[in-house]
Each structure stands twice: as C-alpha cells, then as structure tokens.
Write a structure and sequence with these properties.
- This protein has helices spanning 22-32, 34-38, 78-89, 92-104, 129-137, 160-172, 182-186, 191-205, 275-290; strands spanning 3-4, 11-12, 40-49, 52-60, 65-71, 119-124, 142-150, 153-158, 212-216, 219-223, 227-233, 238-242, 257-258, 268-272.
- It is α+β, with helices and mostly antiparallel strands.
- The chain is globular.
C-alpha cells in the first residue's frame, strides 16, 4: 500500500524490516504498544507449551485471555497454530497457570480473569487462500490484522478480505435480525461501569436537544450532523473517542491521546475509570459537540 507525501508529492513506498528476525521485530513493536493498538496488557513473549510456543500471551482490559500470533511472510499455518493454542488455553490446568501469570504481573494483578471469551489475534503481512478458506468454517472468532511498514510508521489494520467471512456468518445466522439496544451495551459493564455510562449519557444529553444516540455492535455513537462521540463500554470503565477541531481543541491534562493516524473520523481517545475523569471528559465531549455547529 503506497502513501503520498502531500508536501513533496512523492510516493512513500512500504518497507521491509531490516536486520535481525523481521517477525521478532514486528512482535517487539506491537508488544511495546499493545494497549494502544489492541487494548490488551502484555503478559509473556514466546510462552512455551507442550508442542508449541505462543508468540504473545496477554489479557484484555476486560480480563479476557488473549493469544497473539505474528507472521512476517504469507504462510498457510498461522490460523492452524492459533486454533491449537486456543485448545490448550481452554484446558482446566492451563486456566490455573494463566491466572497465576496474571496475578504475578504488577500491571494486571488486580484484573479478574473472565473466561467467557478468549481473544485470538493474528498479525500477518498477508493471508493465504488457505487461511481465507479455513476461517469460513471456524467457529472460533479470530481477529486477523494486516500490517504495512513505512518510514518511522507501522500500520496495523483489520484485514478486510479475511474478516468479511466472519461478518457473513453473523449476517446469515440468527443474529441477523437482532436489534442492538442500549441494554446490550450496559450489560457489558458491572455496577461501577454502568454508573459511569449512565452519568456520561446524562451529561451528553444536557449539551443539546439535537443529539441522537445510536447503537452498533461494539459501540454507542452520538451524532448531530456527524458522529462526534463514540463510547466503548468495558467491564469497569469506558473508552470514549472524539471528533474534534484540532486547531481549537484544549486538553490541559492531556488525557485524550491522538489517534488520528488510525484514519478514522474520530481523532482523540480517552479512558474513563472514575468520576473525576468523567467530569473532565464531559468538557472534552462538549468541545466535540460544539464543532457540530461550525
């Protein structure tokens, strides 16, 4: 995927990792920014198990176990590997081992492991026809990401070819006619998370009578002319994403990180895990709302 430098008009071509093991370099970069890229906390690299080795063992912000596999080159085995590791992680003795690893990590020791879902992630330069065919028939939900490397820039994005088959399964199944509701999102949170969401919604609707609320499978959106706020509900906190005017946006505490490089319409993101942050976030949301009148 080529890029164009708008100042010089020159094409910025994709690069290859130079020196060492390219796959390990890819893994190192992603593990360094695991929370920003995939909303996970790092646990271990190259975790050895019987008959295999998991590239990255992690846990999501919601407490779900996570396995991440990387492939620098197109290979036919990447999905087979992650399914094998998935079977290993579901075994009872393995669950005790995983929970021990979580509790021994200073960053994750307060997180309660939630086994209701195991997150499986593949990151590869491209996927083979074998992978695309296999994922059509897998019941396990696997997130397939592609990557491109440019000068001082690593882009990670959901692969549209592979992941479309997962969408087709949903559309062709019983979930096709299920309407997403507010309660679907509220039920993802515990008592603390629900309180944060309810307070946030109350504050947002007080900003104006022209605000519309909509529900997508993975987020709640708030719109006037365009969507200015997206809310992702987690178990104990919220993640908000804002569409703001970068020239006038003021964030004195610098809580909202810049996500403009993701190429979305929202360009700022903030985690809300207590009432103080919620009160501060409402000011940022008000700035995003005010841009709807510009």
């Amino acid at each position: 995927m080529a890029r164009i430098n708008l100042k010089t008009g020159k094409i910025i071509k994709p690069q290859e990792f130079s020196g060492g093991n390219p796959e390990h370099q890819l893994q190192k970069y992603i593990e360094s920014y695991l929370n920003q890229l995939l909303q996970c906390y790092f646990l271990k690299s190259f975790h050895k198990i019987p008959s295999g080795e998991i590239d990255t063992l992690a846990i999501t912000e919601d407490g779900n176990p996570c396995i991440i596999e990387y492939k620098h080159k197109q290979e036919d085995t990447v999905l087979n590997q992650i399914v094998f590791y998935y079977d290993w992680l579901k075994q009872r003795p393995t669950k005790f081992e995983f929970e021990r690893i979580v509790k021994e990590n200073n960053t994750t020791k307060k997180i309660d492991v939630d086994w209701s879902k195991i997150r499986l992630i593949c990151v590869a330069k491209q996927y083979s026809n074998w992978d695309i065919s296999l994922i059509k028939h897998l019941d396990a939900e696997i997130e397939c990401y592609s990557y491109t490397l440019h000068e001082n820039e690593l882009d990670i994005h959901l692969d549209p070819i592979v992941n479309q088959f997962k969408k087709q399964k949903i559309y062709n199944g019983k979930q096709t006619h299920k309407e997403i509701t507010l309660e679907d999102h509220r039920n993802r949170a515990d008592k603390e998370g629900k309180l944060l969401l309810d307070k946030l919604r109350d504050g947002v609707f007080k900003m104006g009578d022209n605000i519309e609320e909509g529900y997508a499978p993975n987020y709640i959106k708030y719109s006037v002319k365009t969507t200015f706020l997206v809310v992702h509900v987690r178990k104990k906190w919220l993640i908000i994403q804002l569409r703001v005017n970068e020239r006038t946006f003021k964030d004195q505490k610098k809580f909202a990180k810049d996500i403009s490089k993701r190429g979305w319409t929202v360009t700022r993101e903030m985690k809300i895990n207590n009432m103080d942050k919620l009160n501060y976030a409402l000011d940022l949301i008000k700035q995003a709302y005010d841009t709807q009148g510009e």
